[in-house]
Amino acid sequence: MALSAKATQEFVPIKEVRDGIVVLKDGGLRALVLANSTNLSLKSSDEQRATIIQFQGFLNTLDFPVQISIQSRRLDIRPYLLLLENRMKVQNEPLLKLQTKEYMEFIRNFTETVSIMTKSFFVIVPYTQMSIRTDKGVLRGFFSKKNKQEEKIEEQLDFEEKRSQLEQRVSVIQQGLNRCGIKSAQLGSEEVVEVFYKVFNPGELEGKIELEPNASSV
User: Fold this and answer.
1) What percent of the chain has pLDDT above 90?
2) Residue 34: inside a domain, yes or no?
3) pLDDT at residue number 216
4) Which terminus of the chain, N or C, has less C-beta within 10 A?
5) 177 in a structural domain
6) Burial code of 87-112, b = ≥16 C-beta within 10 A, e = fewer?
7) Which whole-number Å values give the CA distances from 106 to 44, 92, 206, in the listed order?
8) Would residue 49 count as lying in a domain?
9) Which residues form the TraC-like domain (predicted)?
10) Domain housing 14
């Protein structure tokens, strides 16, 4: 099992997640921006055309590549059913308790027959520093040895410099999306880890929320 886990990690290009920034093994940085959706079918034809043109103009103004990722997952209705179950327990009115029970059964049966999907939209903003190493720099690095503390400080300074450039790109993305009527927010460390955990562990969270066997009884 240990060998299998190690072999799997070798295919994951992520080194760490620091301050909401994904640090890749090759030194590149990635930021994840969560964007909401807009329903074009609810807009008039003129509004649809204006939105598409605005978004096209936004993409044409970018001087760096971006990746748009859409994650579709089946809606987990269990937390909502658990909430209803807890409310039913404290309900003293028999009629309301019965109605809550019937409503829970309806939701449970409906979600079993119809797949309700949720979609999350992410814009992945990259930054990779392009550096040209000269022979002089190579020789200077060969003859000058640095201790671990100096290497750690230099690594932190390099990270801060690249993060500053990345945050400028994130700002450009969010301003452009805002002009298109799309709200967005950059993910923090916990949200980023959760996104990648769900990507690499699909379905693992299933079964963690359990309803009591007699939850539907009045």
Assistant:
1) 36
2) yes
3) 37
4) N
5) yes
6) ebeebeeeeebeebbeebeeeeeebe
7) 35, 21, 21
8) yes
9) 19-197
10) 2-75+116-187
